[in-house]
Amino acid sequence: MNKTLQMVFVNEAGGNVTISVQDPHEALAEQAVVDVMTLIIEKDIFVSNGGSLISIHSARIVSRDVEPIIG
Asked: pLDDT digits over 41-55, tens only?
């Protein structure tokens, strides 16, 4: 099963920006995600087409099963 951490931020234009991390740690704590997202905002690490990221919208783990048919 493939898992992805999706961190969703709000930018200056009011749009949502998603940053995805493949294969997050199994024991990922909510506070650790909040701390990283806060650091990304404070350090202005990423800028989107709608400007800087200004707040946390949400975060989620997305799981996906892949079942090959050929190969």
From this structure: 999 999 999 999 999
Number of other residues whose CB lies within 10 A of the CB of residue 63: 8
Check whether 14 has a pLDDT greater than 90.
yes
The token pair at 61 is 């783990």
Say what the pTM is: 0.89
CA-closest candidate to residue 8, choices 42, 18, 32, 44:
18
3-class SS shares of the chain: helix, strand, coil, % to 5: 20, 45, 35
* Under 8 Å between Cβ of 61 and 7: no
Q: How far apart are CA 70 and CA 58, in angstroms?
A: 37
CA distance 42 to 23: 25
